[in-house]
Amino acid sequence: MGESNASLQLTPDGNLRHFLSIDGLDRAMLTRILDTADSFIEVGERSIKKVPLLRGRTVVNLFFEPSTRTRSTFELAAKRLSADVLNLDIGTSATSKGETLSDTLLNLRAMASDMFVIRHAQSGAPHFIARSVTPDVAIINAGDGRHAHPTQAMLDMLTIRQHKQTFAGLRVAIVGDIQHSRVARSQIRALNTLGVDEVRLVAPYTLLPNRPEVLGARVFSRMEDGLKGVDVVIMLRLQRERMEGALLPSESEFYRMYGLTEEKLRHAAPDALVMHPGPINRGVEIESSVADGPQSVILGQVTNGIAIRMAVMSMAMSGQLGDRQSEQGEGVQAS
Amino acid sequence: MGESNASLQLTPDGNLRHFLSIDGLDRAMLTRILDTADSFIEVGERSIKKVPLLRGRTVVNLFFEPSTRTRSTFELAAKRLSADVLNLDIGTSATSKGETLSDTLLNLRAMASDMFVIRHAQSGAPHFIARSVTPDVAIINAGDGRHAHPTQAMLDMLTIRQHKQTFAGLRVAIVGDIQHSRVARSQIRALNTLGVDEVRLVAPYTLLPNRPEVLGARVFSRMEDGLKGVDVVIMLRLQRERMEGALLPSESEFYRMYGLTEEKLRHAAPDALVMHPGPINRGVEIESSVADGPQSVILGQVTNGIAIRMAVMSMAMSGQLGDRQSEQGEGVQAS
Amino acid sequence: MGESNASLQLTPDGNLRHFLSIDGLDRAMLTRILDTADSFIEVGERSIKKVPLLRGRTVVNLFFEPSTRTRSTFELAAKRLSADVLNLDIGTSATSKGETLSDTLLNLRAMASDMFVIRHAQSGAPHFIARSVTPDVAIINAGDGRHAHPTQAMLDMLTIRQHKQTFAGLRVAIVGDIQHSRVARSQIRALNTLGVDEVRLVAPYTLLPNRPEVLGARVFSRMEDGLKGVDVVIMLRLQRERMEGALLPSESEFYRMYGLTEEKLRHAAPDALVMHPGPINRGVEIESSVADGPQSVILGQVTNGIAIRMAVMSMAMSGQLGDRQSEQGEGVQAS
């Protein structure tokens, strides 16, 4: 699947044209995304936070699964790139009138949309769209089923690089419900591609993936063992519906065993980073004093989320334009 | 009604100031709208799809009936004209606090709104507003009751002209639930005004209008007869609630008799256009291979929908400004 | 509370940095807000209604209580200042996933938001946020509990000044459910700060505040006495849920006693202004002929609402920037 993911996401000359998953992107491309995002960090600090890279472009946020938070970050990123943004809550729209997903997308494309940001409950939906429905519209995956959430993974990589400079030699623990997490899947791939020393998965056996060794990760069921000496601790969100499914004992039981407390954090390296994708459940996944403590970089992750989304949006738009013969010479230049 | 529709929609010197219905607009005005839309087609193909015609203007989308699709096309059209857009879902807003429709509109006008795009379940609501409530705000009818949907009709005219160059000599069949269709009513009027040779209505007797001859159309109850030799086939959407009202036998029965299949299409001219306002119900109103076939111009209609909306919005804004003495000399110029 | 409200809302050199309540702002500051708003009135009359004061700034409308009308006025005001606007209906968002209010706000701040416009059912929520959560984001109070609605009060002051030139010597009656009205609380404070001669509260005893003399107002339970000779009559909205709570007899009974009819209005000065925050309930709080009559300035209040919001948004943004050392020299200049 790596090969086809590469050819699907990249132009013949190796530029990004869709951003669907970390699979298929090599270390050089991930580094290029991080470097581009770095250049946008500065934009967020300016009083005028606009760059004209997507001026006159139409970005459609197509959220088949509701997520105000993620949608807002893409909306802000697109507006800071000067794009026109259309938010569609697809659950209440045309698809309910008997129209197929493909027809909905072809209609939006016919309105001269340039980019679709897609969140979908079904794994692989963004790939299917990029391959078979609207290959000439830049597709950004904003989370598909249990499969991938690549912008979340890349904002985490940006945060790690800001604090640790390099990935070589790092040991990173991912803690929580790995089994159902599209975020974890993307993180593991990104960490390995960028060359960390070791990825550890810490979870009860019921919440581990089936063949972790294929993913390039070691598994631990005891928090104390998993965190020992790590440089980065990435907590996952606990999905409450899993507990009702009897895969987990109870919130308090989970917190006792896998919640990140000050005490458990002492097993990690003294300068270990504490990360969490948010929104955080204080006292369920993480102790308040840890979330607000000196090792926490959680709010930095949020800031980096805007920069990463600006990076992949501008790079994919640029790659799409490079692909279109007819528009040669007037393409957007991403740095 | 034609006369009053003319004086209501046009300035004393014959420019558009509201766009409420095809009634009252002559062939020269419809042609001007099509020509203006043609100039915007090119805008949709540019990398920077913005023109500054409505810059600093405030367009309010007032949808008393929900329609994500139509609202999105007006929103995109307004943004490409550089307007500020406010979307109001009126069902959940002030009118539920006991405020009258007139007061809601006068309040929005007092906020210095320049244009209202109105969809309303009641026939004539946009006319009432343009005549009696806010005559100095440009009113665009986005569909009122069973009465009119003039931008849909005009995008259809634009599509026909693109492929057939002229309307003279054309025979056009409109197929489906004519009786309840505001789209059909506007199409029949536009086709006759633009000078086609013949408009045919194809439907079961229960779904035909009462006096089709007044509309300037011939009726057919057999699809094979109605399509014979026509140059354009316009399918309508089947409203499922009509079937529950016993006006129609069943979806499969309707498809058998009036669904546009490859076989039935062979009765039309070999180069007949296939049109549909969308969203399409494949296998209910139209066979998939016809919707996707070489004669289908359905996606072209969508593209033209943006251009037509840009055209009537910029023309009505320009006409309104011409009307206002106080703002003489700084009016927007529509091409 | 006045003192702390002053230091919370103002920079050390006396500029606005949040706009939370009239409390703590002196006559000079209220006058500065009115003067700034006056300069924006002219903007609403231009064909291009944009000024670049908030260009590249991100304004987040955080409505914990729904209010389409108030949200729309802030959205329009922000767009006319050229800001990027994000509308968040917080009821359906992250807070429902177990995230605290503080965490939601810190996350939005981390996305480089510059201003929060906050409506909240709890009195004091905007103050709490400005003091303890995100002091470096400009906070605008769009109505909190029964406490304050300061932009509504200031748009009323602007309307009075437009028609009466000065506040000295004016007698102003506020009529209706004073007890539960955040608007009335802000109006009383603003009127007294700006130096009117007398503020009168007209209501049944059940709807009067507990200690009106502390607020600086005289109370009247008979409409005829309360209106005698006043220069301004400000009607309040009747909250229907109060009637169910048995604090009021019935709509018709209320209208008979406190509805503003032509007959009752004759007790006021002949050139008395008639004001109402909208949406109006004709025949419940006010007679139609009075709402539409020559003394009514209700629609002028709406127009002024946009100007006042533009004024406090641009002034608070400017004050915030003055506070930030790092951005010295590139701050927005409000007139």
Number of structural domains of chain A: 2
Mean pLDDT over the full residue set of chain A: 90
Oligomer: homotrimer
- For the termini of chain A, the CA-CA separation is 29 Å
- What's the CATH superfamily of the largest domain in chain A, by name? Aspartate/ornithine carbamoyltransferase
Q: What does it look like?
A:
The structure is a homotrimer of 335-residue chains. With 335 residues, chain A is of the alpha/beta class. The first copy, chain A, folds into two domains: 2-148 and 303-327, Rossmann fold; 150-301, 3-Layer(aba) Sandwich (Rossmann fold), CATH 3.40.50. Helix content of chain A is 42%, strand content 13%. Chain A has 14 helices and nine strands. Chain A has helices spanning 2-9, 27-45, 68-80, 101-110, 125-133, 150-164, 182-193, 212-215, 223-227, 240-244, 251-258, 262-265, 288-291, 298-323, and strands at residues 58-63, 84-89, 115-120, 138-144, 171-175, 198-202, 218-220, 232-235, 273-275. In chain A, the strands form two sheets. In chain A, strands 7-6-5-8-9 form a five-stranded parallel β-sheet. In chain A, helix 8 (212-215) links the parallel strand 6 (198-202) and strand 7. In chain A, helix 2 packs across helix 6, helix 6 (150-164) crosses helix 7 (182-193) and helix 6 (150-164) crosses helix 14. Chain A is globular and about 55 Å long. Mean pLDDT of chain A is 90; it is low at 326-335. Chains A, B, C: Belongs to the aspartate/ornithine carbamoyltransferase superfamily. ATCase family. Chains A, B, C: Residues 17-162 form the Aspartate/ornithine carbamoyltransferase carbamoyl-P binding domain.
